[in-house]
Design a protein that fits this description.
The protein contains seven helices and ten strands. It is α/β, with parallel strands linked by helices. The protein has an eight-stranded mixed sheet, sandwiched between helices. It has a two-stranded antiparallel sheet with strand order 1-2.
């Protein structure tokens, strides 16, 4: 900020107190996803820290693979957790994305209440990023849990990702700061016929930190065993 402008602001603050101009609040801190295309799509360079981001889309749309790649990237920087309600996570799959498995905690709760309690405790204990993989059949009662969960995440500056069906209920859509919707538009195969990955059409449905409506298409590669 130019010295002249800073001096003028100081004079106005002396004269008018709280009514004087002042710098805007600092932007929400961001955790890069580890996926450049996704970081560009969010408009802020990654996942908002201390908030909830929703990855929505039908099965096979690539949302779970993208979330797990983010978990793998975050594990190289600090402790992360994956709350696996469907019990589908294969840690060996994450190792193909260079995940630090010694930094990864896997939680397989028996109920929604148990899973949300685990998230709150882990966030308070210093886990940097928590991914909640929640099937539609297990989401009943989530609207009562989310306010407490988000309060704890904001206090702890913990990044929350939620992987859910495309028709997520209104409570999730209300509390999420960022909602990304994914659709698979094509399978991509190698010349030898093996699956290379999938082409994903992604869109920003909601964004409290940047303009929504951004769209992007890219190929999500599957790791080579």
């Amino acid at each position: 900020m130019p010295d002249r402008l800073q001096q003028a602001i100081t004079v106005l603050q002396t004269r008018f107190g709280s009514a004087a101009p002042r710098p805007a609040a600092p932007p929400c801190p961001v955790r890069p996803s580890g996926i450049p295309e996704l970081d560009a799509l969010t408009g802020i360079g990654g996942w908002p820290v201390g908030r909830l981001s929703l990855l929505a889309g039908p099965r096979g749309s690539g949302k779970r693979t993208l979330a797990q790649r983010s978990v793998a990237a975050a594990s190289r920087e600090g402790p992360v957790a994956y709350v696996d309600f469907p019990s589908r996570l294969d840690p060996e799959f994450l190792s193909h994305f260079d995940a630090r498995l010694d930094q990864l905690l896997v939680v397989r709760p028996k109920s929604l209440r148990e899973g949300m309690a685990s998230v709150r405790v882990l966030a308070r204990a210093g886990v940097d990023l928590i991914c909640i993989d929640l099937s539609r059949t297990r989401s009943a009662g989530l609207d009562a849990e989310l306010p407490h969960l988000l309060h704890r995440a904001a206090e702890a500056e913990c990044t929350l990702l939620l992987v859910h069906d495309a028709d997520a209920d209104d409570a999730i859509r209300y509390y999420a700061s960022l909602i990304l919707s994914f659709e698979r538009s094509a399978w991509i195969f190698r010349r030898d016929g093996d699956l290379e990955g999938l082409q994903v059409d992604a869109a920003v449905v909601k964004n409290r930190l940047a303009p929504p409506g951004l769209k992007k298409q890219w190929i999500v590669p599957y790791p080579i065993p």
